[in-house]
Amino acid sequence: MSCDDCKTEIFRQKIGRCKRCMWQLMALSVxxxxxxxxxxYDAPRDVNSIALLxxxxxxxxxxxxxxxxxxxxxxxxxx
Length: 79
Known about the structure:
By secondary structure, the protein is mostly helical.
């Protein structure tokens, strides 16, 4: 997933720097979690519920990784 702001395809170099990716992940997390809560909270063993739960967890986890690396780079003075 390459955007106009990132000139490289290497994941380690993009993590914590790609603002476009962070905004997309935030939007997907903000949309996904309430959607899961509203549609599938009552049926946590349903296949659709589990799939949406995994997608939401992946979006939120990757966003958390981006934010942790961003904070680390800012504190270390690399940005």
